[in-house]
Amino acid sequence: MEKAYVLLSVEIDSKREVLDSLKEIPEVKEAYQIYAPYDFIIRVEAETMQELKDVIEERIKGIRKIRTTLTLICV
Q1: Which residue, 11, 36, 66, 73, has most beta carbons within 10 Å?
Q2: Rounded CA gap, 75 and 67, in Å?
Q3: CB–CB of 5/60 below 8 Å?
Q4: pTM value?
Q5: Which strands form 66-73's sheet, in the order they lie side by side?
Q6: pLDDT in the model for residue 50
Q7: Cα angle value 48/57/34 (rounded, 5°)
């Protein structure tokens, strides 16, 4: 099982919308709003590194209202 933590910065007043979209992605196991330069930290898990990359690049980064991300892949 491959795992990553992703920090998300979102547009103002869009936190609820982004959180609702994240909840629809089965690979997102946890999502927390944080008080930091980023708005959320999420834990993502997938069977392979390629699947993990696809989920992050296509599904998570494809959510409207996400401005920036920082991905931390666990080894």
Answers
A1: 66
A2: 26
A3: no
A4: 0.94
A5: 28-33, 40-46, 2-10, 66-73
A6: 98
A7: 100
Find where tokens 């609702």 sit.
20
pLDDT digit string (tens) for 2-58?
999 999 999 999 999 999 999 999 999 999 999 999 999 999 999 999 999 999 999
* CATH 3.30.70.920 assigned to 2-73: yes
Q: How far, in Å, are 1, 22, 64, 69 from residue 18 at the CA level? A: 25, 6, 8, 13
Q: What is the pLDDT of residue 15?
A: 96
Length of the chain: 75
The 3-state DSSP composition of the chain as helix, strand, coil percent (nearest 5) reads 30, 40, 30
H/E stretch holding 25: none
Residue whose token pair is 């690979």: 27
